[in-house]
Design brief:
By secondary structure, the chain is of the alpha+beta class. Helices cover 16% and strands 49% of the residues. The chain is built from one helix and twelve strands; from the N terminus they run H-E-E-E-E-E-E-E-E-E-E-E-E. It has an eight-stranded antiparallel beta barrel with strand order 1-2-5-6-7-8-9-12. Strands 3-4 form a two-stranded antiparallel ribbon. Strands 10-11 form a two-stranded antiparallel sheet. A hairpin with a 4-residue loop joins strand 8 and strand 9. The radius of gyration is 18 Å and the shape is globular.
Amino acid sequence: MRRFLILLLMLASVLIGTAQNVKSEKVFHTYIYNDEYKVYMDVNLYDANISVPGQDVFGMVPGFFGALRDSRKWLVTDAKIVGKNKAELDIINDYGSEDLTATLTYNPKDNTYVLKQTGGSRLKIVVNRKWLKIPTEIVLVPHERMPDLW
């Protein structure tokens, strides 16, 4: 009986360790948030199975960029993981009138992501009926899903 319990505990610890390793390997399947601008990204660059809320006409995409204070979304139309912690993204607005390229880089030391726009239009959102340009480089952190305020 004692051997059985020890074996069971060892098996459980192996399974928990394996589950944590799988989670850490999928750094581009996450919800990340920036509190200063109240913007977020919901991405799954591995399976491209993210549905944009309220905009199902776009189908499944690798991810999107949104704001808590604005209903508009910027859709990730194509994503290519180019390293263990770096991905290249093609992004368009939900009207299809503006597009940009960007890199999304994960920093495992401080568990942050940096979205850096490398070309094309600027990301922008509406706040208090005025356009607000998002900086070309913005830091996002993993976060629980936030409800949009609009």
